Amino acid sequence: MLSNGSRKKKIRAPRKVMDFEKSWAVLAAAIREIENKNAYELSFEELYRKSYNLVLRKYGKQLYESVKLLIGDYLLGLKDHLNKEYDLTNDNKLDYLKDIKDKWEDHILAMRMISDVLMYLDRVYAKENHLPLIYDVGINLFRDNLIKFNSNTIGNQLNMLIMDEITSNRNGLIIDIFLIKSIINMFESLIEDEKNIELGENYYLKYFEPFYLNKTFEYYEKQSNEILDLQNGTIYLKMINELIINEENKSILYLPNITYPKLIKLIDEILISSKIDQVMKFNNEGLKNWILNEKYDDLNLLYKLLSRVDYFDGFKLQINEIILEEGSSLESNDIVETIPGDGNNKNNKNSSKKATTSQALLWIEKIIKLKDKYDLILKSLNNDLNLQKTIENSFVEFLNKNSKLSEYLSLFIDDLIKKSGNKSEEEIEIILNKSIIIFRFIKDKDLFEKYYKNHLAKRLLKNSNDLERVVIAKIKNEIGSSFTSKLEGMFRDINLSKEVSKKFNSKIFEINVLTKTFWPIQPTTNNEEIILPQQLESLKRKFNDYYLNLYNGRNLNWSFNFGSIDIRIKFDKKIHELNMSIYCGIIVLLFEENDELTFSQIETLTQIPKSDLIRSLQSIAVAPRTRILTKKPMSKDIKPNDLFKFNNSFSSPMTKVKILTVANKIENDSERNKTMEKIDEDRKFELDAAIVRIMKSRKTLRHNELIVETVKQITRFKPSPQFIKKRIEALLEREYLQRDKDDRGIYHYLA
Amino acid sequence: MSDDKDFNDLCFACRVNQVDKFDYTPLYLASLCGHEEIVRMLLQRGAICDIDKRESIRAVYGALTDQIRNLLISYDISKKVDTNLPFASHFRSLLNGTSLLTEDIAFELSDDSKLRLHRFLLSTRSKYFREKLINSWSTKDLIKLTDHSDINAFSIVVDYLYLHHNPSKFDKIDYNLLLSYGKKIKLNEFIKIIEDLIKAGDDSKAKAKLMNEFQIRMFESARDDFQKLVEDEIINKKIISNKEALTDDQIETFQKSVGFPDIILSVHEENDEDDEENDDKYIFYPVHRAILIRDDYFKVMFSSQFHESTIYELNTTHQIIDRSTTIPTIHLPVSSSEVAEIIIRFFYYDHSEIPLNYAIDVLFAGDLLLNERLKTMAAVTLTTSDSLPDGYDLYDILRAGWETRVDRLEHYVAKTIANNLENYLKDSEFANIVLEVCEKNEFVETLPGYKSYQKDLDEIEDLLQDLQLEA
């Protein structure tokens, strides 16, 4: 600088020309001292001022490069020293690791101090020229001149040694965690891509992490295969659970956060995802064993492991199979139990029927028990909603394989209500709730409705129970009021009838007036032709007049086959009060005037339908305890020429005697077919109604869309597409719908 | 008004007068959103509503309701005060403990609570403490506060001494107690404010204003105290010697001083080369590390592990500096005692007057000390004076600006030359500087962001063309 005054620029005046070499010699000596940890004698102020002046005199570049060279040389020397000192064949591996760790820590400390001294160089020269700061230069040189020198020689050795230590640690040996952690920290500090520091690529991520994950894979693959060879699922679960916990606890001590999730994902994949399906299939302590033997702890552990990887597909598949198997084994048990029943030849048909009923009840009970078990299993699966669905679907699947499901369940509830006196309210409530769950599993709910209505009708006509309403409320809650409206109508009829009977008279005459459409029972066609005894005939006429007067315009049809009658008869020994069906009553009353009658005569005199007549006669002439009539010949079958006579010598320990009509409890095949026909008929109506409803609102729809919509609307059963197609065709025929002229796959609604 | 502790903590945590990146204060946000209760609370907690300031007037205009607006106006203080004075925030940070250990006395508040403080600060700010420190506390490292009723008062007083204003602490203490403690330790300014606060009674508006007043008076008294410290105990006590180092006796006088210095700055004044009668002079100032570390250069010097960081003995029991050993000397690389004193005044109380003739030296000192504020202040002196410093011409200023990377100087010189182009065109020196500009120009263009210089460069280049035309 030009000088034109004596007292100016005192800062810069002393030396007109800076001697770079002289100042650098001092700085270089200081840097060596710093590297050798002898800095405490050095004056920061002096060194700083030297570097400051050099930069101010435009020696920044020279200084920067010189520092770089000096540190680079120092590190190369360090590298040579390390390579010479350790052959790594002996037991000095740990010393080697420790030495490198110490060298690294010394180096970063030294670099911190060197960069403190060269602060002005950093702030002015490096910054203006977009060069790395001196500190970073030192770190990068450590990477290039030491760790990665000669194609990563020392680096590879370090990776290997650290991995050895980690493996020892996995095998249960105690290692110097802090040493490992320090070296890993060092790796993380070594930036790989200097131009893109934001990418965060460093030595650790580029070299160590892939190596580590690879070795970890090999380690756990080997471990898990060894455990797998034991062929024991419980042991497998327990051992890998331990491995996982162990690895989690240990790795967290030295592994960077960025790798931890990768590690967990890797070991989960090796130990759980890739092997668990195989493990669950083990015969020895596999999923089936755990379920059948209710090993909830094992199941819970399994669930925990599966949740880690969120992989349930295999589990769902297997549990489905197991439930189906368990479910179908319940049915096969039934058959086994039926066989001895068949062997018993007395009252063969009757007892087999009873056996079938009790089997139905037993079956439902077993299912409820099975469901209870799976509820507990589900609990051990943390009540996972998804798995609950799977289990329920499996139940739906195996339950609906049994075509008698609806009937059995209805029978079960029938039985429950009839025998409700024996159980506490709580018990009944619990069983009812479980029954409702099974009801939920029924696909064709309309079929159930049919059976239920039949059973309900019979129960209502006998005597109604408060429980009925509870059940209906539960069903309503489950599926909605459209399903139960007819059932509720039945209740209304019964209640109304009670009032009407009361008003009409008379304690002796109770009558139920039923709305035809609510009730499953229909008057037999020839009901009007049945010839009643005088007493009954007049009662019937009186009520007819009374009722039609009360409700003008209604039409009363009489169904005697559902009624009962009490008759008091004086026998030789005693007067008995007999309760019997109206048919039986009609027959018995015939003997007021006749001594002897043949079957054909009785048929002519009463006009009772033949099958009913046979059953009635069986109850009063064949049933051992209620032989009001004697029959010739004394056989079980009833033939047209059989002769019946009033049995004056009838006796019974009780005054009141109830004569049971031989009744069909379970449907036989032809009855079932009839029921199915009836159901089919109802389904047709329902489908037609649904299709018309949809078309009315949509006007025009494609065939497939219509099918989809229809399936959506029908909740009471699962209509097959073919069935729907048939109904569509029927509706086309009846001109509710019309095909599009150009596209036959499109339907139009015809108003 | 609620006594909600959480809210108090919140106000304390967010420091009621702080601003976010949009310069929004809590007061403004509360006002804008119409939270009248919170506005009141903030004002009572010392939020400043000064309608001469942008942040505050914004709150007044942005007020959602008239009630809030009136409330704000009623709390208006309209008195210029900068609560974020740099020296104030530095003292506050000392109270919280910095990365560097500078405390030299410990107080035991209770069995498990210790407060570590600075003797020089207590001595400077309070005559009472100074007496104590000279006499009964002079050899003690740990002072036990025996009277427990004084502890809360002591804490508020320490805050006051360290320029830390925390209104929420005042809620938890009886003012009369505070007053009697203030009287005990003879803190006159403090006593006055507490007396006013007692007079204000339950008038929360008056109280809030007093709280702000408190802060202003606190800063003013502190500034006076530190000025006095610098003049009486540092500059007045400086030792001028022709030897490079002080004798032990000389150091001992520093050690005994009520300034309680813990470091000595030495300045080497080189004699002019042509004056052979006088030797070089060495000037020694007794100063404090707690203050020097405001500057990055000194902070690094004392924290990096060189000789300068190893010269202190620690009292490890109390985690304080052991003063019984000698006071070390470090060299302040400036050229004259005048420059040194400018810098010392600046460090202690943000004194910013720089005589024109020392501005260039201060500029370079600021550059060396990595202190941008010092550089800016020097540059402001240079660019706002009507004349140039003795012995320097405009080109020197330009070069100094380049060397220390202070753009303001370059702009200033370019403008001055442009305004007097005729005169400079005749100057032979001007041609040289234009050539330098050309070299620099190329260099500058390789840098991103050079466009900001473009305007000035264009101006100068115009000159260049003029010059060539003339030539």
Automatic annotation (TrEMBL), chain A:
PANTHER family attached to this UniProt entry: CULLIN
Q: What do the Gene Ontology cellular component annotations say?
A: cullin-RING ubiquitin ligase complex
Q: Which PROSITE patterns would you find in this protein's record?
A: CULLIN_1 (PS01256), CULLIN_2 (PS50069)
Recorded GO terms, molecular function? ubiquitin protein ligase binding
Protein name as catalogued: Cullin family profile domain-containing protein
| Organism, scientific name | Wickerhamomyces ciferrii (strain ATCC 14091 / BCRC 22168 / CBS 111 / JCM 3599 / NBRC 0793 / NRRL Y-1031 F-60-10) (Yeast)
- Short name of one Pfam family: Cullin_AB
Q: Which residues form a coiled coil?
A: none
Entry keyword set: Isopeptide bond, Ubl conjugation
What is stated as this protein's family in its record? Answer: Belongs to the cullin family.
Q: Which domain of life is it from?
A: Eukaryota
Residue span, Cullin family profile domain: 404-621
What biological processes does GO assign it?
A: ubiquitin-dependent protein catabolic process
From TrEMBL, chain B:
Q: Where are the ANK repeats?
A: 22-54
Lineage of source species = Eukaryota, Fungi, Dikarya, Ascomycota, Saccharomycotina
* InterPro entries associated with the record: ABTB1 (IPR044515), Ankyrin_rpt (IPR002110), Ankyrin_rpt-contain_sf (IPR036770), BTB/POZ_dom (IPR000210), SKP1/BTB/POZ_sf (IPR011333)
**What range(s) does the BTB domain occupy?**
103-162, 261-356
Q: Per the record, what is one GO cellular component?
A: cytoplasm
Alphabetically ordered keywords of this record? ANK repeat, Repeat
Query: What is the designated name of this protein?
Result: Ankyrin repeat and BTB/POZ domain-containing protein 1
Q: Would I find Manganese among this entry's keywords?
A: no
